[in-house]
Amino acid sequence: MKKYIVISLDRFRDSAEIIAEVIGGDVTEYSRDAFREAFDRYEGIVAVMSAGIAVRNIAPLLKDKWTDPPVVVVSPDMRYAIPVTGGHHGGNEIAVMLAKIGIEPVITTATETMNRGSVEGYAKINNLEILNKDSTRKVNAEILDGDIPCYLLNEPSMAVVSPGVSVLLSNGRYIVGIGCRRGVSADEVTGAILKALDMAGIEKNDVLVYSTAVLKKDEKGLISAIRNLSGNLVFVTDEDINSENPESGSRATDKIGLKGVAEPSALALSKNKKIILKKTVFGRVTIAVIE
């Protein structure tokens, strides 16, 4: 299966084949279920049809710009390519690819129309992952008004940032959520993490970040363990934890008013919300691995 798919009405099949050749995609004929099936299988969709048909079909499928595939509408006369969703998440890139066969990309994302960059674009170019995705709305808005500072922190260091600061990390795609008892040692935490990663079939270098609850911010053994692993530990707020719906139950609900720690804190930071290892107990430490 290829990365992209071109969906077209039967009468525009020849145009769809040309576009598929350019972007390296599959081609399928438009049907009532074509977009629904493509949403689950492809990283990007090109629709050769009127924008109205495409928009009405994808509207019930849209969930999150970070996980939905971008959708680019190409006008039936092959004159314009319009990213209608996911411009910063691959849509603009697909539209620009089509310029090589004379289709004009119609870019509507604010930063690009003002000849400015975006957080998402910077992350993609530099192979980075945006940790706190909600921050991009504010940062991109500020970029429209002028340059904003970008800081590079080398290890060892600490950073305390507000919600309006985008944090970009360079390693891995997995979030390791950690819950633990009070007074746990660094060795206990490290041992639990390594066992969990082994069970999940994941290398330490594949971990993007480690997560836990804010109430663990003074847990010395936990902090030391992550430092020893050369990892990044994020303390997730109670509000963000309780906004998630973890599969595993937790006694933390009655004790501390949280839906859990390990599993929901990792879900809160993950892009795909895909559980690789459900909440698993290792002595006094609980670990969950989320992609």
The best one-word shape is elongated
Distance between the termini: 22 Å
* Percent of residues in β-strands: 15-25%
What is the string of SSEs from the N terminus onward?
Answer: EHEHEHEEHEHHEHEEHEHEHHHEE
Q: How would a crystallographer describe the biggest sheet? A: 6 strands, mixed
Number of helices: 12
- Average pLDDT reading: 90
Domain Cobalamin synthesis G N-terminal: 34-112
GO molecular function, one term: cobalt-precorrin-5A acetaldehyde-lyase activity
Domain CobE/GbiG C-terminal: 175-289
Keywords: Hydrolase
Tell me what you see in this structure.
By secondary structure, the protein is of the alpha/beta class. 34% of the residues lie in helices and 22% in strands. Strand 3, helix 3 (51-58) and strand 4 (71-74) form a beta-alpha-beta unit. The chain is elongated and about 70 Å long. It starts with a strand and ends with a strand. The model has no long low-confidence stretch (mean pLDDT 90).
Write the layout of secondary structure elements.
Elements: E1 4-8, H1 13-23, E2 25-29, H2 34-41, E3 44-48, H3 51-58, E4 71-74, E5 80-85, H4 91-97, E6 104-105, H5 110-113, H6 119-125, E7 129-130, H7 135-145, E8 168-169, E9 174-180, H8 186-200, E10 207-213, H9 220-228, E11 233-236, H10 238-242, H11 252-256, H12 262-269, E12 275-282, E13 285-290
Parallel strand pairs: 1-2, 1-3, 3-4, 5-6, 9-10, 10-11
Antiparallel strand pairs: 4-5, 7-8, 9-13, 12-13
Helix pairs in contact: 8-9
Domain Cobalamin synthesis G N-terminal: 34-112
Keywords: Hydrolase
GO molecular function, one term: cobalt-precorrin-5A acetaldehyde-lyase activity
